[in-house]
Design a protein that fits this description.
Structural class of chain B: alpha/beta
CATH topology of the largest domain in chain B: Rossmann fold
CATH class of the largest domain in chain B: Alpha Beta
Helix content of chain B: 40-55%
Strand content of chain B: 5-15%
Order of helices and strands of chain B: HHHEHEEEHEHEHEHHHEHHHHH
Distance between the termini of chain A: 6 Å
Number of domains of chain A: 1
Largest sheet of chain B: 7 strands, parallel
Number of domains of chain B: 2
CATH superfamily of chain A: Cobalamin-binding domain
CATH superfamily of the largest domain in chain B: P-loop containing nucleotide triphosphate hydrolases
Largest interface: A-B, 36 and 40 residues
Distance between the termini of chain B: 25 Å
Number of strands of chain A: 5
CATH architecture of chain A: 3-Layer(aba) Sandwich
Oligomer: heterodimer
Number of helices of chain A: 5
Strand order of the largest sheet of chain B: 4-2-5-1-6-7-8
Radius of gyration of chain B: 25 Å
Structural class of chain A: alpha/beta
Largest sheet of chain A: 5 strands, parallel
Chain lengths: 137, 380
């Protein structure tokens, strides 16, 4: 039987601009996904712990503070540590192209910049889910 | 070790169970998902967990949107954690009937307790399943109970029948209202009065809180049998000075049902439970200890009166009935010859030569072997 895709949308770090995260959360909900939104100023530990408890398929981080090279790898490591290396870690924000590439090389992403259509995001997550999770019934 | 291992192969459930025993949160989370989605092997999982049930106290919290349920939940969790108890929280939010999606935001207000390893929070979407929500919630409760949680809190938005059903899966139901809920007894129509074991008027520093409390107590005092059978209400002109103190008390209670309900609700070891109406200001942590106290007293009452056992029995009875219905449904309608048999009967049915109920009898009569077969592990 098919089940909804579960996504955690989180806003780590100190910047307080959550418009983007909320737009993404609403778009994913409207695409039929179950979105867990955890609010502002989350630590990587809080995000990883929530992702594990909620048994999500996808974690999406919104980072506008420039701390992406620290925060993405930290959340990634914590998820692996918790035994959930199967979760797709993606996200977006103000992230230079070369940083996106560097993070992608570590198994994070892909990442999305400003101006991305929410439909692209939905399509990306659906395609990933179909490829990685479809067999689990 | 790897969580990805949960996704593949026939040994999935065994791996989940092994990690579950090792108290790994990822395994608990996956067990919840397996039960919630009826994924492959859920029957095996449920059966393995069954002997471990019965430890946790299950508390339902319901009320209108914005009443402060999540904030109260957080404060209750904090108090129980300080007392050394482990707590599981199930936060239920509605699924959109149009897109099937859901935005689950209760964790935002539970941040304070989010990193505590003795707390496990799980958001659930209603998924629009008619009547199925209550059983899904109960299954998830069972998983948390089997994991060894001391207390389980189930938080639902108190609108609609399915949420009331969810509340009924708990041992104790707490109804949270705010002064604004009370300009009439509007909120109390939809069965809320009957399901509540404890009321709290939250945001009680706002105008109207005392009035709402009094209205609630009045309603409770007017319930059949609530005043303990004092028939003195009609004694106009009785000189209170001529009565003995206990007679005076009885008369006062009879004339003031709200007062009687308040008194009955504060009794330490009552024979009959009268829901107390408390006041809280959860955001300022006010009234939480009274709430904890009321929950503890209610649990003691359930235990003493035998009602706890009765409620748990009812849950068990319900569980088996649902399992039977699920199995009958699966075995019959996933069986190709049975489906074909029905197809072949359609012309007769259409012509009026065969009645639907007779067809049903005939179908059941030929399905004996199908219904008695066992296929524990083959279910999906």
């Amino acid at each position: 039987m098919s089940r909804p895709i579960r996504v955690l949308v989180a806003k780590p770090g100190l910047d307080g601009h959550d418009r983007g995260a909320k737009v993404v959360a609403a778009a994913l909900r409207d695409a039929g996904m179950e979105v867990i939104y955890t609010g502002l100023h989350q630590t990587p530990e809080m995000i990883a712990s929530a992702a594990v408890q909620e048994d999500v398929d996808v974690v999406g981080l919104s980072i506008l503070s420039g701390a992406h090279m620290t925060l993405f790898p930290r959340v990634h490591d914590l998820l692996v540590e918790a035994g959930r290396d199967d979760i797709l870690l993606t996200g977006g924000g103000i992230i230079p192209k070369e940083d996106m590439a560097a993070l992608e090389a570590r198994g994070i992403g892909k990442l999305f910049g400003p101006g991305t259509s929410t439909q692209d995001l939905v399509d990306f997550i659906r395609a990933w889910f179909a490829e990685h999770k479809a067999q689990e019934a | 070790m790897s969580g990805a291992a949960y996704n593949t192969g026939h040994s999935t459930i065994d791996r989940v169970l092994a990690d579950f025993d090792a108290k790994k949160p990822a395994a608990l989370a996956r067990a919840v998902s397996i039960m919630e989605n009826h994924r492959a092997g859920f029957e095996k999982l449920a059966s393995a967990l069954h002997p471990r049930l019965g430890h946790a106290r299950r508390i339902g919290i319901t009320g209108p949107p914005g009443a402060g349920k999540s904030t109260i939940t957080t404060q209750l969790v904090r108090s129980w954690r300080e007392a050394g108890l482990t707590v599981g929280v199930i936060a239920v939010d509605p699924t959109s009937p149009f897109t099937g999606g859901a935005l689950l935001g209760d964790r935002i207000r539970m941040e304070e307790v989010a990193l505590d390893p003795g707390v496990f929070i799980r958001s659930m979407a209603t998924r629009g399943s008619l009547g199925g929500l209550a059983s899904a919630t109960r299954d998830v409760c069972d998983v948390l109970d089997a994991f060894g949680m001391d207390v389980i809190l189930i938080e639902t938005v108190g609108v609609g029948q399915s949420e009331l059903d969810v509340a009924r899966t708990a041992d104790t139901t707490l109804v949270v209202l705010v002064p604004e809920s009370g300009d009439s007894i509007q909120t109390l129509k939809a069965g809320v009065m009957e399901i509540a074991d404890i009321f709290t008027v939250n945001k009680a520093d706002r105008p109207g809180a005392d009035r709402l409390r009094n209205d609630l107590e009045l309603m409770l005092g007017l319930r059949p049998g609530a005043t303990g059978g004092h028939e003195a209400a009609g004694h106009h002109g009785v000189d209170l000075r001529s009565l003995a103190p206990e007679e005076k008390e009885a008369l006062r209670d009879a004339m003031n049902p709200a007062r009687a309900a308040r008194k009955a609700a504060s009794s330490e070891e009552p024979d009959r439970w009268t829901p107390p109406v408390l006041r809280t200001i959860a955001a300022q942590k006010e009234g939480i200890s009274d709430l904890i106290d009321a929950i503890t007293r209610h649990h003691g009452y359930l235990d003493r009166s035998g009602e706890l056992q009765a409620r748990r029995r009812e849950r068990m009875r319900e569980r088996v009935r649902e399992a039977v219905e699920l199995k009958v449904h699966q075995r019959l309608w996933k069986d190709e010859p049975t489906v074909q048999w029905l197809e072949d009967r359609l012309p007769e049915l259409e012509a009026g030569a065969l009645a639907p109920f007779h067809a049903a009898d005939a179908l059941l009569a030929r399905s004996g072997p199908l219904l008695t077969g066992t296929n524990m592990d083959a279910e999906s």
